[in-house]
Automatic annotation (TrEMBL):
Residues 1-149 form the Histidine kinase domain. It comes from Mucilaginibacter terrigena. Transmembrane segments: none annotated. This is histidine kinase.
């Protein structure tokens, strides 16, 4: 369906803000317009990225969700200031059942499926997903989707 990208992202962010007292989900949105995609699945991807950002940043409280539009692409990024991902594990996190082995101070529950599923959804919608991260500093997960002209 056609939907306003920012509005859909905002709805998911507001739903998830209700699940945490500790973390503040900051929205930094630029005009995106409408896209044609599976709105529910995009919401599912956002939920996976934001729940990860919350889970893997136990000692910081800010999470920044930003959107932008460039040419015929919309991009959304979820940035946290948490544990980060070691350089050599950055590509592996998108694999099925892959989890970075836990630190000594913390154990984080999970199956290692969220990012695999998210990446598949975005790929099937014709987009792509990537991560920038520094171990011990934080992570930024982004995905882009194409904007096709409304006819
Ligand atoms: P679930 O299936 O419940 O989502 P999960 O969170 O372990 O379990 P993924 O979401 O696929 O699985 O993430 C895979 C791994 O990537 C995680 O186990 C974690 O090691 C790492 N990871 C994902 N997001 C982050 C993040 N924001 N910061 C640091 N590490 C992350
Ligand atoms: Mg996860």
């Amino acid at each position: 369906i056609w939907f306003d990208f920012n509005l859909a992202i905002q709805e998911t962010v507001q739903d998830l803000q209700h699940t945490t007292n500790k973390h503040i989900l900051v929205m930094d949105f630029r005009e995106t317009g409408k896209i044609y995609a599976d709105k529910e699945r995009i919401g599912q991807v956002m939920t996976n990225l934001i729940t990860n950002a919350i889970k893997y940043s136990p000692h910081s409280n800010r999470i920044i969700i930003s959107t932008q539009r460039e040419d015929n692409m919309v991009t959304v990024c979820v940035e946290d200031f948490g544990i980060g991902i070691p350089e050599d594990k950055k590509e592996k996190v998108f694999e099925q059942f892959y989890r970075v082995s836990g630190s000594k101070q913390h154990t984080f529950p999970g199956l290692g499926l969220g990012l695999y599923i998210s990446n598949e959804i975005i790929r099937r919608e014709g987009g792509k997903m990537w991560v920038n991260s520094t171990e011990g500093k934080g992570s930024v997960f982004c995905f882009s989707l194409p904007v096709t002209n409304e006819t």
